[in-house]
Design brief:
The complex is a heterodimer. Chain A is mostly helical. Helix content of chain A is 76%, strand content 0%. Chain B has a single domain, classed as Orthogonal Bundle (ABC transporter involved in vitamin B12 uptake, BtuC), CATH 1.10.3470. Chain B is built from 12 helices and no strands. In chain B, α1 runs parallel beside α6 and α7 crosses α9. The mean pLDDT of chain B is 89. The interface between A and B is large, with 50 and 47 residues.
């Protein structure tokens, strides 16, 4: 067991290393210096307190979408609709904050967080419901719901909430923002906000839920063996819907945190945000372990935030970071190869499997 | 506008938008019939659109008016190479098909915009191509009364080719030995293996055909609609093609029909101004219609429109 536990970690670390090497080779091929660029990346992500603030701020939504993906995955479902759920969550939180701006600050924030995460939850519950009662593949429905969310939110923002000709809503009031002055000051005026703390709280809540409660046990059980779970008296339909609902609530919450903490308004998106897929990457790299998700989301966030300074200090196209991220997920995906390579190293000589 | 002019506009606009979807959806059907789920069609289209545009811009002085057509082939070939990543990961290295397909979707835009910046002095988009695939009038056929002007005048030749491809694909999949074997490894790989069919080879074949056709689909997009390449050249068409394939019940002709229907939905915002009843309907409903329809169709046809039995299941010899 101990060996298995470590082999997961070793596979993930190898995947990260392999992804960085692929990025390095591509940079070398096109005449850029990998050492200089990775140095700038590291500096841009963790070089000073401001950068650290930015990196942690950006890690929070990744943490939540990753957590969301992993809950559905525990129940045996592939929720690749994180982007759509994030988008409706972002939309819901900003609209609530704008419409109920007469409420006192703390109530306004809680209301906005609930409104957004509920919308996200409903969005993925639809896929869970169709899966439970009609057997419809959640992979397809969540993909379709992603695009429905994209076009609908764009339409609603332009039609109802943006000034004529504008592409974004008004900004929310300061009292509705997750930015608080002591965190901003602490991190040298970065966008670091309460969102990171909220995300950490949910990591703990979901860990307790999944390991200590009956409902969490049922989710794990359905994921491991749906037939046996049904035979054991677990309401599998209900469990599927709960898992998908929670998954969407977390992705929606990620949208709220970005909306209230980072953007402060809602704008038209040209294409689907990548965050749902990045969250999936986080969960896969972390082997769906809550602590792993914290570290994996900080790593991906560091790549994204640090990646911004790559193109500041050199002519290297910033997209190199996305290539590295995609490569890491590719290597996580082919973990079979690593397991084949690593297994012999972990086994004592002379012991056959 | 006269009725026949309106009909001609609707028909040709529909075909223009349907063509990329038809090629890509048929490609998806090949992959899934061989047992490999391919949610990476979007990424494959991006790579096809990019390579076709680069080829066109580079070689237009050599090939002249034929350039965009050769670019389609190049887009398809590069599509094959790119899709090999998915094939190796899923077939040889037993990766989860959804993860690997998602990698294609994440890698393609990153890689293509990266290369665009390197090739075109830091800009995130290529210049506009000079030679593109314009509209086409079938000589002779356009003289047919009533139908001629509507169906065969100023229309999309590449869409007609796509429909022909749909027919050919149906023949290949359902009437030839190769097609039968390809479908067999997607339905029951263990049984196919017992009969001496090389499961891996036919799965590679299925995935590579999806790369070829997805690449062509993306190339059609850049060579006839957007006329350059940028991050937004392909924005959801790959997923719409995936939807068309499912709406068409994994059948090449069904996928073709569904793609034409989605092409109509995409063209409605553009042509609704000419059609009295549609003027007041907001574009958003046309935009989301294909996706809603797909979900509804999936729910209604439960048990009737099912994917190949072993779709998404990795085959490990001796394991089943």
């Amino acid at each position: 067991m101990v060996k298995q536990k470590y082999s997961g970690l070793i596979v993930s670390l190898s995947a990260v290393l392999a992804g960085l090497i692929v990025g390095g080779i591509i940079m070398l091929v096109f005449g850029y210096s990998p050492l200089q660029n990775y140095g700038n990346l590291l500096n841009g992500a963790f070089g000073d307190i401001y950068s650290i603030g930015e990196t942690l701020r950006n890690a929070a939504p990744l943490m939540l979408t990753g957590l969301g993906f992993s809950i559905a995955s525990r129940a045996g479902f592939f929720n690749i609709g994180g982007s759509g759920q994030y988008l409706v969550g972002w939309f819901g939180s900003i609209i609530f904050a704008l419409k109920f701006s007469f409420l006192p600050g703390w109530l306004l924030i809680i209301g906005a967080l609930i409104a957004g995460s509920l919308l996200g939850g409903i969005w993925s519950w639809i896929a869970g419901f169709l899966r439970a009662y009609f057997g419809t593949s959640e992979v397809i429905t969540t993909i379709m719901l992603n695009y429905i969310a994209l076009y609908f939110v764009n339409f609603a923002v332009k039609q109802w909430f943006a000034a004529k000709g504008a592409d974004a809503s008004a900004n929310i009031l300061k009292k509705a923002s997750l930015r608080v002055s002591w965190l901003t000051k602490l991190t040298d005026n970065s966008t670091f906000n309460m969102g990171f703390l909220i995300a950490l709280i949910f990591i703990v809540i979901m860990w307790v839920y999944m390991t200590k409660t009956k409902s969490g046990f049922e989710i794990n059980s359905v994921g491991l063996n749906p037939q046996a779970s049904k035979y054991a008296g677990i309401d599998t339909k209900k469990t599927i819907m709960i898992a998908m609902l929670l998954s969407g609530v977390l992705a929606g919450l990620a949208g709220c945190i970005d909306g209230l903490g980072n953007y402060q308004n809602i704008s038209v998106s040209n294409s689907l945000p990548n965050i749902g897929f990045d969250g999936m990457a986080v969960a896969l790299l972390a082997n769906e372990h809550p602590i792993g998700i914290v570290f994996a989301s900080i790593l991906f966030s560091a790549l994204q935030i640090g990646g911004l300074s790559i193109s500041v200090y050199s002519t290297t196209p910033p997209e190199i970071v996305d290539i590295v991220i995609a490569s890491i997920i590719f290597f996580v995906g082919i973990r079979y190869l690593f397991e084949r390579l690593i297994a012999p190293m972990l086994q004592k000589k002379g012991v056959k499997n | 506008m006269s009725t026949s002019m309106v009909l001609m506009t609707i028909f040709s606009t529909t075909l223009v938008y349907a063509a990329p979807l038809i090629f890509t959806a048929i490609g998806g059907a090949f992959s899934e019939h061989s047992g490999i789920i391919n949610v990476g069609l979007e990424g494959i289209m991006i790579v096809g659109a990019f390579s076709a545009t680069v080829f066109n811009l580079t070689f237009v002085s050599v090939f002249g008016a034929a350039t965009p057509w050769i670019s389609l082939v190049i887009g398809g070939l590069v599509g094959i190479v790119f899709t090999l990543l998915h094939a190796v990961a899923t077939i040889t290295l037993r990766a989860n098909h959804i993860i690997s397909g998602t990698v294609l979707n994440l890698l393609a835009p990153a890689l293509c915009v990266f290369l665009t910046r390197i090739f075109y002095s830091g800009k995130g988009q290529t210049p506009i191509i000079d030679q593109s695939i314009g509209n086409f009038t079938f000589p002779g056929l356009d003289k047919i009364p009533i139908l001629g002007p509507i169906l065969f005048t100023k229309t999309s030749l590449v869409a007609y080719l796509a429909v022909v491809f749909g027919g050919l694909s149906w023949y290949l999949l359902y009437k030839t030995n190769t097609g039968l074997r390809l479908r067999a490894v997607g339905e029951n790989p263990a049984a196919a293996d017992t009969l001496g069919i090389n499961v891996s080879w036919y799965r590679y074949l299925g995935v590579m055909i999806s790369g070829l056709l997805g690449g062509i689909g993306g190339a059609v997009m850049s060579q006839s609609i957007t006329l350059n390449f940028s991050a937004s050249t392909i924005s959801g068409q790959g997923f719409m093609a995936l939807a068309a394939m499912i709406f068409g019940k994994w059948h090449p002709m069904g996928a073709t029909g569904a793609a034409i229907f989605f092409g109509l939905a995409q063209s409605l915002p553009i042509i609704s101004g000419y059609i009295p009843g549609l003027k007041n309907i907001n574009d958003v409903w046309f935009q989301i219609a294909p996706y809603v329809i797909t979900i509804v169709v999936l729910v209604i046809f439960l048990g009737k429109a099912v994917a190949p039995a072993a779709d998404g299941v990795n085959y490990v010899k001796g394991d089943s």
